[in-house]
TrEMBL record:
Protein name: DUF5062 domain-containing protein
Phylogenetic classification of the source organism: Bacteria, Pseudomonadati, Pseudomonadota, Betaproteobacteria, Nitrosomonadales
Pfam families, sorted: DUF5062 (PF16691)
Length: 86
């Protein structure tokens, strides 16, 4: 797994987009007390369930790999000339 350039910033954007996606679907309302890890896992499972992203083998489901997977998902939604992609 090769780290993406600007992966941390892409992940932050992915979390915001993922929360918006999940709440927009009406399937969850995240609370301020929910941890980032809980949100990350929920968003990942929802995106897999909706067939938006390919699932990882269950033994590879860890916070580091999920952060990377969501960063990739988010990067594919950005315009080609976005600063985070350069």
């Amino acid at each position: 797994m090769k780290p993406l350039k600007h992966e941390a910033e892409l992940f932050k954007g992915a979390m915001l987009a993922g929360v918006k996606y999940a709440e927009g679907r009406g399937v969850v309302e995240f609370e301020a007390t929910d941890s980032a890890s809980e949100k990350l896992l929920y968003i990942y499972r929802l995106l897999v369930h909706d067939k938006v992203i390919q699932p990882l083998p269950e033994e590879q489901v860890a916070e580091k790999t999920l952060r990377h997977k969501l960063a990739i998902w988010y990067s594919k939604q950005l315009p080609k000339d976005h600063p985070l992609l350069n």
